[in-house]
Design a protein that fits this description.
By secondary structure, the protein is an alpha+beta fold. The chain is 35% helix and 33% strand. It has three helices and five strands; from the N terminus they run βαββαββα. It has a five-stranded antiparallel β-sheet with strand order 1-3-4-5-2. The N and C termini lie far apart (53 Å).
Length: 140
């Protein structure tokens, strides 16, 4: 969870938290959960926010906390990535709430895990080199 404190510099023209600040909070919180969920894959994939939709439910007065839930189990995303070997997309839901527990906004971000082609090529080249050195064969 991430939290945005209530400061006048974050307010809009009607005295609530600015929509842009709330969007940033939600997107940042979703990114933290994605990175935390797939941390061990970051050497071989790049996480990218592909799209986002947000619904502002009510004016946010006071601090706001972002609650984040992966839209698909991480194990399912990992299995698809391993099976397909190409970019996998999955939704992440974020709910923004004030301290009184009331929902202020709901956001869905479509995240993608894109395999790093250079990392794949480098790993393959390293494997070939190690194989050649250990087998005593020379590769031309």
């Amino acid at each position: 969870m991430l939290r945005l404190r209530d400061e006048p510099t974050f307010h809009n023209h009607v005295g609530g938290l600015h929509a842009g600040a709330m969007f940033t909070l939600a997107e940042s919180a979703s990114g933290a959960v994605v990175i935390g969920s797939f941390e061990d894959l970051l050497a071989t994939v790049t996480p990218l926010a592909a799209s986002a939709t947000i619904t502002y439910v009510r004016l946010a007065t006071g601090a706001v906390t972002a609650e984040v839930v992966l839209g698909r189990p991480a194990a399912e995303v990992r299995a698809e990535l391993a099976r397909m070997g190409e970019t996998v997309q999955f939704p992440v839901q974020v709910t923004l709430r004030t301290d009184d527990g009331r929902t202020n906004a709901e956001m869905t971000i479509s995240w993608a895990l894109r395999p790093q082609r250079q990392a794949v090529r480098a790993a393959t080249a390293t494997t070939r080199f190690v194989h050649c050195v250990t087998s005593g064969r020379r590769q031309v």
